């Protein structure tokens, strides 16, 4: 049987478990289920298998990718007490009870990136899509072909922190006058043509990141979900967030500091993966963990 591409190792599972500090009969929300690695780590640590009725951790698991949910159900088939929610974590209000722990792992799923038809990849040509949830209307193709150059510049600068944002936006606007930009490689070539040689790869990566964030409303949804998490946690409950770029990490850091009436910050500085874990799991290289205790 082929290996399930979603079943990769979770990032920093030991630190996540330590900071969540869940009771053995607690209630836990995984806002970014992916292939289920963090849920599996929680349940294997705290829940007997098979689980006697009424014992063990209760889990609410969100993911907007139906393929990820299917993969997680396969991985977690031995465990009871999991409610799967095909939804974005911005809808945390769908959880019907207060909980003991909430986890966000904000890394993009590698199977989504690797599949050319999803439109995230720099390595494979595919349609310009980048939707995490394919039920939504807005795609990268729509943004690239229809947004004004000024708005493209804002997206590239705000979400990609790209210094050549204006130049790239103008080159895109000129190119789409001749023909629609349909594929990832078309866009990649346009970006490279507008960028100095020494910065091409970094710039393409930044622009693709900016488009992905804009298509999926990632930063706005994160801010909304953090506010909901503050209300959803029980007193003494824990919020744990793994972020992978500075924009996300900044939002989480400021949220915890500015909500001092709700949270005690447990991580004065972000917790980083060890060299040993990075060697075993390269996805952990850019991860930063921050945590707060609900007062």
Automatic annotation (TrEMBL):
Gene Ontology annotations for the cellular component aspect, listed alphabetically: cytoplasm
Protein name, entry field: Ribosomal RNA small subunit methyltransferase H
MF terms in GO: rRNA (cytosine-N4-)-methyltransferase activity
Gene this protein is translated from: rsmH
Keyword DNA-binding appears in the UniProt entry: no
UniProt-listed NCBIfam families: 16S rRNA (cytosine(1402)-N(4))-methyltransferase RsmH (TIGR00006)
PANTHER family: 12S RRNA N4-METHYLCYTIDINE METHYLTRANSFERASE, S-ADENOSYL-METHYLTRANSFERASE MRAW
Family from the record: Belongs to the methyltransferase superfamily. RsmH family.
Pfam annotation, one family: Methyltransf_5
Binding-site residues for S-adenosyl-L-methionine, renumbered to this chain: 36-38, 63, 89, 105, 112
UniProt function note: Specifically methylates the N4 position of cytidine in position 1402 (C1402) of 16S rRNA.
Reactions catalysed, as given in the entry: cytidine(1402) in 16S rRNA + S-adenosyl-L-methionine = N(4)-methylcytidine(1402) in 16S rRNA + S-adenosyl-L-homocysteine + H(+)
Keywords: Cytoplasm, Methyltransferase, rRNA processing, S-adenosyl-L-methionine, Transferase
Gene Ontology BP terms: rRNA base methylation
Compartment(s) where it occurs, according to its Swiss-Prot or TrEMBL record: Cytoplasm
Highest taxon in the source lineage: Bacteria
Organism: candidate division WOR-1 bacterium RIFOXYC12_FULL_54_18
EC numbers, comma separated: 2.1.1.199
């Amino acid at each position: 049987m082929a290996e399930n591409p979603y079943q990769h190792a979770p990032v920093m599972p030991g630190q996540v478990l330590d900071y969540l500090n869940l009771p053995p009969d607690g209630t836990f929300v995984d806002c970014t289920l992916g292939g289920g690695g963090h849920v599996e780590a929680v349940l294997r640590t705290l829940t007997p298998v098979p689980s006697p009725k009424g014992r063990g951790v209760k889990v609410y698991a969100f993911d907007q990718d139906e393929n990820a949910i299917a993969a997680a159900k396969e991985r977690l088939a031995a465990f009871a007490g999991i409610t799967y929610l095909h939804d974005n974590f911005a809808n945390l209000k769908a959880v019907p009870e207060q909980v003991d722990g909430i986890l966000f792992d904000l890394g993009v799923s590698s199977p989504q990136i690797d599949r050319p038809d999803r439109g995230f990849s720099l390595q494979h040509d595919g349609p310009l899509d980048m939707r995490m949830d394919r039920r939504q209307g807005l795609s990268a193709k729509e943004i690239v072909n229809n947004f004004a150059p000024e708005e493209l510049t804002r997206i590239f600068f705000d979400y990609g922190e790209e210094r050549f944002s204006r130049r790239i936006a103008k080159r895109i606007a000129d190119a789409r006058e001749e023909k629609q930009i349909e594929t990832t490689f078309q866009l990649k070539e346009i970006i490279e043509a507008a960028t100095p040689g020494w910065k091409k790869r970094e710039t393409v990566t930044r622009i693709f990141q900016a488009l992905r964030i804009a298509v999926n409303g990632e930063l706005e949804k994160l801010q909304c979900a953090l506010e909901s998490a503050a209300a959803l946690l029980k007193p003494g409950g824990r919020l744990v967030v793994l972020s992978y770029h500075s924009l996300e990490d900044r939002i989480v850091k400021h949220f915890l500091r500015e909500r001092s009436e709700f949270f005690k910050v447990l991580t004065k500085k972000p917790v980083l993966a060890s060299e040993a874990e990075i060697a075993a799991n390269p996805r952990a290289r850019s991860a930063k963990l921050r945590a707060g205790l609900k007062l």
